[in-house]
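Table S2 (continued). Query chain:
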Amino acid sequence: MTPRLSTLTAVALMTASFAVQAQQPAKKPLSKAPPATKAAAEDKSAITKEFEKFREVLEEDNPAELFEARGEDIWKNKKGPDGASMAQCDLGLGPGVVKGAYVQMPRHFADVGQVMDAERRVVHCMVKYLGYKEADIRKQPFSNDARTPDHVSVITWVAGQSRNMKIAAPKKHPKEIEAFEIGKEIFAYRAGPYDFSCATCHGDDGKRIRTQDLPNLRKPDQAIRAYQGWPGYRMTGGFMLTQQWRMNDCFRQQRFPEPTYLSDSVTALLTYMTVTANGQQYKGPGIKR
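Corresponding output:
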């Protein structure tokens, strides 16, 4: 039986993983925008198609391949202090098995007794087998114009090994079901100075910010858009970014305190969105504007 979790459970978990920041006074909920006209919908579709064409051209020479190559070298050749290597890392399909692993996470890992998303698991293995320090990784978890952390390159390569495969995140273990339900509640939870939630932008059809169509992440055929292209090479910065970064940035844009890196709340949210996208085809690391 699927556990029914209260909103308070989700909020408690989310709050526990947020960095402490000063609270701001809440404002009244935003009123709903008027329904889009047929002409506006057609115009939106045309703009979307142009962006898709633009992205297809760029994908032919995607710089993400450079980061995949670096990640593969770290995975296959770097040794830990006791001679251990990432060949001992179990991404859910057995030690050292990478092919198809990315599209089958988040999932429950018995060795740690918790659900982990792909980035969380890769960092865990790099700390356990290669001697990386989690405290050092947390000092700069995301790429910037000065440096791309090693774990970002590794997760990019791992993701590339699931290119053109269907997403199949499991929802069988009780903790996988629990993570899904908590993620679902976090997705819908409204708070902050603008009374936003993930669902404010991504919970209905036909929403848009400027020229950007916003997918309804509650629907499988649209939920893929929160998964597709991540990790992604960001043209505006010239570096690789991951799903963990994307989630943190979404909280920032909602004016929420940003979650701490590798938090339970982000894993739960990724579990909800990934399971919702199950059955859709993942094209591999992409390119972002």
